[in-house]
Specification:
This protein is an alpha/beta fold and 499 residues long. 38% of the residues lie in helices and 22% in strands. Helix 10 packs across helix 11. Bound molecules: manganese (II) ion.
Length: 499
Amino acid sequence: MINLKEFEVWFVTGSQHLYGEETLKQVAAHSQEIAQSLNGAAAIPVSVVFKPVVTTPEEIYRVCAEANAAKQCIGVVAWMHTFSPAKMWIRGLQILQKPMAHLHTQFNRDIPWGEIDMDFMNLNQSAHGDREFGFMVSRLRLNRKVVVGHWQDEEVLQQLGAWTRAAAGWNDWQGARFVRFGDNMRFVAVTEGDKVEAEMKFGYSVNYHGIGDLVQVINAVSDGDLDALVEEYATTYNLADKLKKGGEQHSSLRDAAKIELGLRKFLVDGNFKGFTDTFEDLHGMVQLPGIATQRLMADGYGFGGEGDWKTAALVRAMKVMGAGLPGGNSFMEDYTYHFDPKNPLVLGSHMLEICPSIANGKASCEIHPLGIGGKADPVRLVFNVDGGAALNASIVDMGNRFRLLVNTVEAVAPQHELPKLPVARVLWKPMPDMKTGCAAWIYAGGAHHTCYSQNLTAEHMADFAEIAGIEYVLIDQDTRLHQLKQELRWSEVYHQIKG
Ligand code: MN
């Protein structure tokens, strides 16, 4: 599983030698106290590591170079306790490759009205020291997150925590490998995209293997492993009678388990963080992977159906970002609508591959015909999903840039029995309302595939887009269609100029 505490963000405080050694000692002591407090904050899932106060261009350059090289370091939190003339930061910031948050805080929360003197003023200068630093970052046109408030303020901790989660997702992509079994579903547009550009922009690589490479590994699965996994299915899920030992389709359950074992081995051996498959390319496979994909997603692997590698990578990043939070993240598709004007809903699902991390209880393990692909009936997990705040996210390739599109939604608890629907499903209302939300998504070119998240917010996603340096379009309770269409047009011009 993913443990975010093993990753570090470095707490770097800027100052200068103008104030004498005594002040610098106090600056260091205060910074240490803040770093320690952030490190212990429940809202911040990663380790926060204090770094010695930097006071010269050389020290600043060195700490940025060290941050770049340190494997566990996923980002830098910068703070100017005093005034740190920002020309000193130019070379350091120019080489910094790790995400940056600028914590605009002050050691003392309150002004000590009866005691305040010039010593206090000289020590607590972030109100203007951080502005000098902020100018330099803006002047260099660097992306960062600015978080404002006292360092013990719960909202500040939440905002920093969200950024560390986004930074962890970003870090996970750097050097990540995603494997595609086969190509995209024939003629489908939105699942296509520029894999070279994606690797340059996002840091992950996407390569294909013929399905035969996977089939070979599946066929080599041992009987002992197979027996054990079939047993695990029986104890973990509500197994349909015909899949039970002695049941008429028990052999299909064994086939499904064999696919899971082979797929898992292939992913582990190849050090892959996610995969795609397609029902159009299953030569040598007995069934389309259903339960296998669902369980692999639950273990943190990214997945995209029909060759959708962008969504597979996004699902993986969002699983990393949400690690340790209640609720889950799943591959998703807007499947079918309920257009009742009094209660409009989207039913989200897929042919099979919804992650049980979002299930509202014990899943049923069932087998049903698929209807497409011409293979044997696939085994799948079927479940419902709870109501509550959630979101759908999609990355599309607009030709000259990638766009991250997010629609916040209100998930709705199941209102009806669905005795004939043989797949896991979610019901939700898109924000700000059904018609506006769906139209906005379509105007923005959002894919039919998404990552559905119960535990990430628009803030996590905005921070992620900021770190990635890609376009971010949010459809939420404040979205107005006219305004959104203008935003898309202006954004087009901006990206033409930005290049
Ligand atoms: Mn699909």
